[in-house]
Structure formats: C-alpha cells, structure tokens
Design goal:
487 residues, mainly alpha, Sodium/glucose cotransporter, 21 helices, 76% helix, globular, ion transport, transmembrane helix
Length: 487
Amino acid sequence: MAWYTTYTIAYFIFMFAIGAYYFTKVKTSDAYLIAGWNMGFWNITGTIISTNCGAAVFIGWVGMGFTVGMSGYFKFALPAVLFSMLLILFFSKPLRRQRLYTLADLFSERFGEKAGILPSIFSAFVYSVPTTALQIVGMSTIFNIIFDIPLNYGIALSFALILGFTILGGLVATIVTDAIQSVIVIVGIVLLAISAIMFGDGFENIIENTPAEYLSPLGAEGLSDVLIFALTVGPFYLVWQSTWQRIFASRTEDIAIKAGLTGYGVVLLIAVLPYMIGVIARQFVPLDMRPDLIFSYVTVELLHPAIGGIVIMGLLSALMTGADSFILQGSSNLAQDFYHRLINPVANEKQKMFAARLSVVLISLLAVLVAYLMTDIIGMYQWALRISATTLVIPFLAVMFWRRATGIACLLSMTLAAIITVLWPFLSTSIDPVFPGFLVSLTVLVGVSLVTDHAKDESVKAVYWEDLPTATSRLHPGDKPTAPVNP
C-alpha cells in the first residue's frame, strides 16, 4: 500500500504544480483551447501517444485480447491508428492553414453558421461526455482496487482531480504534461507486458498452450469479420477532434505532420502490447473473470507493489490525459462554436476565457452524471463512434474536395445519416448500421448539392486546395498567409 500511496500522491502533486504554473501563464482563450497554435515537435508527439493510450489501452484492449485474442488489434487498434495517420499525412497542411479550433468551426466557415451546430453537438455531447465518463469510471475503479475507496466516492474524487487540473492550464498544460506522461505510459505498459510473459513461463510455453484462434490475426471468425469491424471503427478517426486539436496546436504544418506520424507510429507499436497481455493472461487468470478486471488483477495481485505502482501510475497518467483532452474537446465546441460564434461574436478576451473555463465545468459535470447514472457507458461510447462517423466523415471529405457541395445538402446529409444509423438496428438485419449510414450520407449530400444553390454565407471552397477566410483573419503576428491554390 505504501508504494501505491507514494506514487499516487507524487503524481498528482506534479500534475497540479504544472497546472498551477500554466494558470499564471495562460491569458488568452486561444492559448487555453488550442495552445496558441504554437506547440513544438516533442510536445505534439508526446500528447498524441498519451491521448491514444487512455482507458481503452490499459483496460479495454487488455480485456479484448483476453476475450478475442490478437485479432482485436487488427479489428480496432490498427485501423484506428492507420486512419489517424492518413488524416495527418494528407490533411494536416490544409487544416493547419485554416487557423481553426474545431471540426464544427470548419463546417461553419465553409457551409455557414447553421452547419456547425450538429457537429458541435455530436462532438461535445455525443462523444466528449461519455468518453470523459469512461476515464472517470476507470480512475474510480483504480482507487477502489488499490485504496478500497467505494466506487461512488471514487467517482467524485476522480471528477474533482480531473476537473481541477483541466480548468487550471487548459490545452497548454495538458499537452506539456502529456509529453512527460507519455514516457510513464510506455514504461507502465512495457513493464506489464514483461511481467505477463514471465508469469506465462515464456513465449514458447505461451504459444504452445494458447488456442490458435487467439494468436491468429484473423481470429475465430476469419477475414470478413476483421474487415467489417475495422471499417466500422476506422473512418471515425478521420474526424476525431483530439487529433484535429493536435494538428491545430502545432507551431507549423511541418511539425503537425512529423510529430503526428511519429506519435502514431509509437502508438502503432505499443498498441500490440495490451492485446498480447490479454492473450497471455489466459495462462494464469481464471477464464471466467470479467475482461475489464484483467488489467487490475495482473497488476495488483501478481506484481510487487514497487513495480505495480509504476504500472498504476502509467494508468493514472493515461486516464488523466484522456479525460483532459476529451473535456477540452467538448469545451472548445461550447466556447467557440456556440458562445463565440452564435451567442457573443464580439466577446472580449476576459469573456472568452470565462466561457472556456465554464465550458470545462459543464462538460465535466455532464460526464460525472453519466458516470453515476449510465450502466453501459462502453455501449454508449461505441454508438458515439458510429454516429459521429456516419454523420461527419462524408461531409468532411466534401468540404475538402468538392466545391459544389452546399450547406443545405450538408445539413440534410448529417441529419438523415444520424437517423438511419440510430434506427437501423430495429430492422434486425446482420448489416452494421455504419454501412447504411454512410450510404445515406453520401447519397443525400451529392444528390441535394446537385439540385440546390450555395447560400450567401457559404465560402465556396475546396479547402484541400483553397483557403477559408480564417486562414488570414486569425493569423498571428509574424506568420505568413498561404496563397489559395485552385485545383
């Protein structure tokens, strides 16, 4: 217990010291919400690693490896990382040039004010709230297992710690601490993997005693099952705002690409480990154990506290960085897309900072309510991925490449795709709702665009080649605007 207590107290003292420092330094809403578009290579690399290694890696992916084997990596982790790398490689330059805050900001600038409302709702409430709730529940579970704190009290304590840090320093403090925490996260997961191999009596014994379907990349169901699962997960990461925030926060387009690819390259490698740990755990963990308890069982019951404490600190780091990022994602939507764009466009800096911090509180409060009241947060999270993907991916691609796309077509496409995705399961077919959702989104956007005209408040641009007005209007002193290039 002493080891765990020492590690935990030291970790939170460090976090709040960094938060307090940046509380005195961060004076503008741009710095608070988007790190002033001014973060360097190592900070962006570290924050990408940390943000992608939250509760999903330490708890979810270990449990998935235990349940379905190494095919889980090819179903979930690999497509998520590859689509994220596609986003960074092909879209970082045009997105970074636009000086944006959020995905909804892009839609509002291209299609008009109304087009940004639905993406803001999805990002802030459908995605950010349940994902933050997952981190809160994960942290409370750790407090329960290690310190025997009842779950209800643990949720309240986790909420207070996460909110306290996030509200202090904003995205700057989050990215700076993420860069440091990424080392802790990697050390923690590597130590756990080495320990699992030792408890499994080495690779030779593990391979000999593990059923082939748990070692195969295709699993028990074969290639079609892996591909269908991957295609329902991967496209969401083209519109995952956590990655967009890191692109926007980068000091230059070059940093956004190099740091992004480096960070995701590391994630691509270390993401193998939690699945491997889950598979190996079948050698020495009761096979009827709940998958979400595998991580804590291996760490607390089998490791010496001096080592287990480092692994737990890695998990706390992952949970904190995930929660911070998701809260700031939702607060950016509320503060920028709703308050500054729709409610008070002439707000001064003091008002914008107040709105930003108030938004952090609102998203955090909603997340803690979900943590207390929802019994199936993971199911809610999976639906958030589906709905966000089917409603936003096709309109995003239209923004980037098709000048003919119209605002009314975008709104109808998002609305009808969301409705179809939600209602499709009631038809009791074997087809995943993501596929009809994408089909409706594409059909409606193209069809309606061809028969409607652009509204007066639209910026008729193919943003991959042409710049929106924000590319110059939000330019920092000393920056040079990029001239629009027609396709």
